[in-house]
Design a protein that fits this description.
Blueprint: H1 2-32, H2 35-68, H3 85-91, H4 94-125, H5 130-141, H6 148-159, H7 171-178, H8 194-220, H9 224-232, H10 237-248, H11 250-265, H12 269-274, H13 284-294, H14 298-329
Helix pairs in contact: 1-2, 2-14, 3-14, 4-8, 4-11, 5-8, 8-11, 9-10, 11-14, 13-14
Length: about 325
Amino acid sequence: MLEKTLTALITVLAGIGAALILYWVLNKISELLPEKYEERLKPWFYILPAYAAIAIFVIYPAVQTFIYSFKTKVGFPAETWTGIDNYTTLLSSDAFRQTLLNTFLWILFVPVTVVVLGLLVALLADRLATRGENAVKTLIFMPMAISMVGAATVWGLVYDYRPPGRPQVGLLNGIVDALGGDPIAWLQENTLHFNSFLLMVMLLWMNVGFAMVLLSAAVKGVPTETLEAARIDGAGERQVYLRVVLPQIKGSIITVFITVLIGVMKVFDIVFVMTNGNFNTNIVGNEFYLQFFNNNNQGAAAAIAVMLMLAVIPIMIYQVRTFRAEEAGR
């Protein structure tokens, strides 16, 4: 443990030192230029490392992934061109179409529920005294500090199943057993995708606190004058929230929704740890892992990554445009 801690500390210090040296060198280079060029080019010298990092770690891998998605199904690096075979094979597979359906259910259910619960908690918590509000918000926000693997471990103890006659470790089956019922293999109950919704509950548990913090700050930022004017005009509390508060925090709601939506589209850890995609719980993120590492099918894995990127890009463009529109309106 001490060795790992020292290694992490040395790595951090080395990274900071390297960054300082890099910017010092770039600054010295800019100072060697003629004065009229120095003033123009110095800002570009400072943002050059960021652009280089984006090019090396984002743009280059994205381009390579796109190229590999049209190449051989097995082997890495892929050498044989196969055209769109990787895409057609995936999309014609019943298993992959079911994976897409499961992912769609996550997209449909989780972001909306997170926003609704986060807003509800924010509105209710704001009615408490300061000490009570802080305590409630701290408890609800705490799951955000847990990794998804850690959360899966915690919820594994909730959904755990043991055959009848054995002591039940899982919380739910402990309650069922105490009430005289037979234990249920919760994560194997795939009727109407019930087990997938149980996995979604874990992500809700982790993200409601995030939504609550942002939406609570947005609600507190609503001018009190508008609220008082609405009440003077005879609006009830429900009308005040629906017709005055919500329109003014629309930007924050959209930001939370899109942030959670992008996170949902990339979910992997929860499904991998809890079911590994078995019992009809597979999603796109886990399918990518299975294709790449288990099936050694890098071409298909690259095709899945490309489809995921194509799905995320329009959402990010919409978020950027919404943010710019809000900034322009201020």
